[in-house]
Amino acid sequence: MTTLATIRSYLEQQQAQFDEELKRLLPSEDAYPESIHRAMRYSIFAGGKRLRPLLALEAARLFGRECRDVVRLGCAVEMIHVYSLIHDDLPALDNDDLRRGKPTSHRVFGEAAAILAGDALVTLAFEVLAGSDPDETGGAADQVPASARLRVIRELSHAIGTCGGLLGGQVVDLESTRCVPDARTLEYIHSAKTGALIRAAVRCGAIYAQAPEEDVGRVSVYGAKIGLAFQIVDDLLDVLGSQAELGKTVGKDDRQQKATYPAIHGIEASQRMAFQLVEGACEVLEPYGDRAHTLQSIAQYLLVRQN
Ligand code: GRG
Questions:
Q1: Whole-number Cα distances in Å, 111 to 67, 97, 175
Q2: Are 160 and 167 in contact (CB under 8 A)?
């Protein structure tokens, strides 16, 4: 039985490798033009659980691949995630002052710099995914074949796009503020806005490991379920959590009349739904036996996380 403390310390222990690689991948603060690099590094290193990189890594491990390219895949996913957080916090969107317990990017660097820092992170993510610079290494440094890399670039582009991806979810979310969406629309918003990148992270890990299609499909179902559960829990934490632990403003969804699971389904039904999604996610990995234990523990952890 994995305790909450065990999985939390496992998460913290795994974060270090992503942080080390991110430090190498991001331009240094004194690289010209310094201001954008400072803003990029500020948000990337402001804290954060590195959950999506870990999911990519664990999905690749499930199918026997562990290498620097997989860590870099995780870093690219984190850059995309942080880009979405910076833009989500902007005055034109959520207009938030606090993220990961620190002032948001636009509060520190101004709105224009925050927009550009987000743009720069997503651009760098795809440069990293494309592999090492052929002028420097001739591609010899890459362990994952170009075909898998290309597929992952496509998968991640789609996951952050307008058709069921982050952008699509955000658009419907914006359009649903101050009106009451039906349950299906709400599920679309959450699955797209948050679930799509989480699902893509595990899919891409499996693709980097060149897992058979049936296995990619299985982790995909796992990813979709925990992705939706993750956002339901996020909604619940906005109602039940503390600002000190969350590192962001609480009670904001209600004030902004946002479409959330507790608002539409109530707190207890939302907790039940998140629980059932996590149960389903764990079940889908049962064919892998003990090998799936870490991914199953991460899913369970999402139900009890406090930040
Ligand atoms: C930039 C692709 C792109 C789209 C723009 C702003 C936007 C459209 C979409 C918003 C997506 C978004 C911010 C969803 C919320 C996801 C969420 C619950 C984030 C918090 O994730 P955690 O708890 O954060 O993993 P840490 O800080 O731990 O990394």
A1: 37, 12, 23
A2: yes
Q: Going by CA atoms, what residue is nearest to atom 2 of ligand 1? A: 160
What are the pLDDT digits (tens) for 165-179? Answer: 999 999 999 998 878
For residue 302, give every residue at least 6 positions away whose Cβ sits within 8 Å of its Cβ, in sequence order, or none. Answer: 226, 229, 230, 233, 274, 278
- The whole-angstrom separation of Cα 234 and Cα 255 is 16
* Residue 253 contacts residue 263 (beta carbons within 8 Å): yes
Mean pLDDT of 124-150: 85
Tell me how far the alpha carbon of residue 265 lies from the centroid of ligand 1, in angstroms: 22
**Closest residue by CA, ligand 1 atom 27:** 48
What mean pLDDT comes out for the span 4-21?
A: 90
Asked if 194 contacts 230 with a C-beta cutoff of 8 angstroms, the reply is yes
Cα 235 to ligand 1 centre (Å): 13
* pLDDT of amino acid 139: 61
Is the CB–ligand 1 distance for residue 104 below 6 Å? no
Helix segments in 29-67, DSSP class H: 34-44, 51-62
Residue 80 Cα to ligand 1 middle (Å)? 9
- Cα–Cα distance measured from residue 225 to residue 81, given in angstroms and rounded to the nearest whole number: 18
Does the reported pTM lie above 0.70? Answer: yes
Residue among 19, 51, 81, 86 to mutate when testing ligand 1 (max atoms within 8 A of CB): 81
Name residues whose C-beta falls within 8 Å of residue 98's C-beta, 6 or more positions apart in sequence. Answer: 104, 243, 247, 248, 249
